[in-house]
Amino acid sequence: MRLSLRWEIVPKDMRKPNRSGNCGPHMPMKDKTGSVDFEFDEYAYLENHPDVLASVRNGLFASGRQHFERFGHKEGRRCHAIVSEAPRVFVVGAYGTRNVGDEAIFEGARRIHANAIQLYINAPRKFPAVEMYSMLRDGNKFRAGDTLVIGGGGLLYDAGAIGILVDLARRARSAGAAVRVERIGCEAARPEYHDVIAGLFRLADSVTVRSSISQQIVRDICGMDVERQEDFALELAGELPPRPERSAGVPRIGLVTGGDHMEEIGPLMNLVREFTSDRAPTPVRFVHIPHSVSHVDFRNNDEVVGAKIASGINGFLEGRHLAFSRQPFTDEPLEVLRTYAGLDGLITRRFHGLVFAHMMQLPVLGLPGDGAKNTSFIEDHPREDQLAIEAMPQIGEGFAALMRLLQA
């Protein structure tokens, strides 16, 4: 087979959007001042073409721009340039990594910063959105009057991640944009890179944190007294689905695990096996709820944990699978909260499992997995029906206490 290649010279007037909003096959596109705003309007392209968005999220294309350059321009797809001079708010966090807790943070931030542009890491979930690393390439894309919000979550987990935030903040400041650190969690901050964190906070016009532990850490690092505000996810509290009245039937207990903490699987498997047995004194129906199916780390995949637990219990008793079900992953926070609404109690190792249970007023047992993060939330939001264990061997005792709460 012989392939024939043909090169075409494209007239200059085809390299710009035409009246219908279609673009020729060549870029970049510039605003009226000649400075590059976004060479390609990624979020508008994906918003206008949901089939392309699905392909990007499934890994068939690295970006909407890649699709456009390969196929979209031949198909006459719309790729609007951004020419608005209005000030913009960019919110950066661990978004686009398929973690519903991080997406809940962004949804809460959008309730405060209307029309905020999400700076995502791997794949956008909501629009408007811009790939975060594109803001660090090809010149400064911030403008005077813009605001960069470093928004919530436990973002300070390693020096490299903080360094990226510092680079974004420096670019924003050099362009005349404001920088605000809002409701951030410092619980995972390590002493060896406290100086990098201090540098980030010095670039900010204002700083707030989400926990009392974070307040103390900022005080130790920078000598700053900062305000504590609730985690952004709690801004969704006004949109919660209703919880049905509790029935006298078999209780439904949610399990929120961590894919990167495989040491939990054995104790959890034993617990589920014991309480789904025909001989269990108090039968329980367990529902595994994945919070993360990570783009970033294959080990951080809660669906793998759910499958391992199911594999470990289903061979022991015919029909036991009816007492252990697995929810499919979704990164839509309100959909996950609808699942929570149908529960009687929760066991969680994830921080936002505690946050969601608090919003839904569910009795909850916190596992030790997230350490200071979980401790910080429990200390700042004390409730009689919010329990915690310090080590996995205590899970039987902790679960017994949770069941007593449900039976009270």
Automatic annotation (TrEMBL):
Pfam families: PS_pyruv_trans
Transferase found in the keyword field: yes
Keywords in alphabetical order: Transferase
Origin superkingdom: Bacteria
Domain Polysaccharide pyruvyl transferase intervals: 99-368
Molecular-function GO terms, alphabetical: transferase activity
Record's keyword annotation contains Transferase: yes
Entries under PANTHER family matching the protein: COLANIC ACID BIOSYNTHESIS PROTEIN WCAK
Official protein name in the record: Polysaccharide pyruvyl transferase family protein
